[in-house]
Write a structure and sequence with these properties.
The chain has about 200 residues and is mainly β. The protein has 2 helices and 11 strands, in the order αβαββββββββββ. It has a domain of about 140 residues: Beta Barrel (Lipocalin).
């Protein structure tokens, strides 16, 4: 993978967090109008939301947790609202990532990871609802695709493209844009000497 992605997908030491700043070319809900009220209802859960826009500033913070997962918080700074997506990722086995979405991790998505010299691609292979320790597999009604590459316009930045598609509806949600990413100690100081690129 390109060096910027080796840093992004590499380890984060205890007491540190990965912090990214950038702008999404497009971000938010892009499905049919009749589903937008549902997005409003679930917006507070930290999964998806009804807003959409272009040139949307964002901040991402990745923090390792004691259980071995990586908690991600993505803040979308729309002109009319600030929205946050929350997830917790673990590696179930080589080449597979389990991502629990939402503030309570109630939606689980399993992703197949494929990396090469150009970047990383993640594609969903299964969806489940999580109620505490109970896991309920769901039919494949939605698919998630994530592509991470270096930014050809800026060697210090990377590009991300996330698409969510639903059966019979098409594309529901997306965000794609460019950002820079650094490892920082939680006291705010740079952490370069603590976590080298993987």
């Amino acid at each position: 993978m390109p060096p910027v992605l080796q840093l992004y997908f590499g380890p984060i030491a205890d007491g540190c967090a990965g912090v990214g700043h950038g702008v999404y070319d497009e971000a938010g809900y892009c499905g049919p109008r009749w589903l937008r009220p549902v997005m409003r209802l679930i917006a507070g859960r930290g999964v998806m939301f009804p807003e959409d826009g272009t040139d949307v500033p964002f901040v991402i913070t990745n923090t390792p947790r004691p259980d071995g997962s990586l908690r991600g918080e993505r803040d979308f700074l729309f002109a009319t609202a600030r929205r946050r997506m929350v997830d917790a990722m673990t590696s179930a086995r080589p080449g597979e990532i389990v991502d629990r979405l939402g503030r309570r991790g109630a939606l689980e998505i399993r992703l197949r990871a494929e990396a090469d010299t150009t970047g990383m691609r993640l594609r969903s292979t299964g969806i489940a609802a999580r109620l505490g320790a109970l896991r309920l597999p769901l039919p494949p009604v939605a698919r998630v695709m994530v592509t991470e590459t270096s930014d050809p316009a800026d060697a210090a930045a990377q590009r991300v493209d996330v698409r969510v598609r639903a059966w019979l509806v098409g594309e529901l949600f997306r965000h794609h844009g460019s950002f820079t990413y650094r490892i920082r100690q939680l006291d705010g100081k740079p952490g370069w000497s603590v976590v080298p690129p993987a």
